[in-house]
Design a protein that fits this description.
167 residues; mainly alpha; 3-stranded antiparallel β-sheet; elongated; 7 helices
Length: 167
């Protein structure tokens, strides 16, 4: 059975036989899969009245554990955005009642961003639905194949993740 990448590789091989198009077999599939995953995730988030960036911030807070709070600086590192972007995101999430700011007892000038009850309920529901959808996507693979794929992708990602500059 052929997929769109097989057709793309065949066309490039015909048009540019002088080039080694082997990377397309893997990386074009990863790219196409990433687009399909993005669409699936956006649909799940929309069902919970969330944008992708909102989910990213809320899940960073949720993963922090009770009382589900982080400094804006820690949120920056968790989501890889600039300080100005994070300030805007916190403002917007606070305006919708999903997070609130509290004084940082360890730093009189600092604040902590904390999930509200509404934010916790929303992110937990969205995360559970996201996992259901992602399990469906992976159903075509056996557990052993999933583990193999995860390990191979980790090998490719590690150099990128260790070299990511912080904003």
């Amino acid at each position: 059975m052929q997929d769109e990448v097989d057709r793309l590789v065949t066309a490039w091989h015909t048009e540019r036989p002088d080039l080694d198009v082997q990377p397309l077999h893997v990386l074009s599939r990863v790219s196409r899969l990433a687009r399909h995953l993005d669409r699936a995730r956006r649909a799940v988030f929309a069902a919970h009245e969330l944008e992708s960036w909102e989910f990213d911030v809320l899940t960073a807070l949720r993963r922090a554990g009770a009382p589900y709070q982080l400094s804006p600086g820690r949120l920056l590192r968790a989501t890889l955005v600039t300080s100005g972007t994070m300030t805007n995101r916190i403002d917007r999430l606070a305006a919708t009642g999903l997070v609130e700011r509290h004084p940082d007892p360890a730093d009189k000038r600092g604040v902590l961003v904390r999930l509200t009850g509404k934010g916790l309920t929303r992110v937990d529901a969205a995360f559970a639905d996201l996992l259901d959808r992602e399990h469906e996507i992976l159903d075509a693979l056996s557990p052993a194949d999933r583990e193999t794929l995860a390990n191979l992708l980790r090998t490719l990602l590690i150099p990128f993740d260790t070299d990511v500059p912080l904003p």
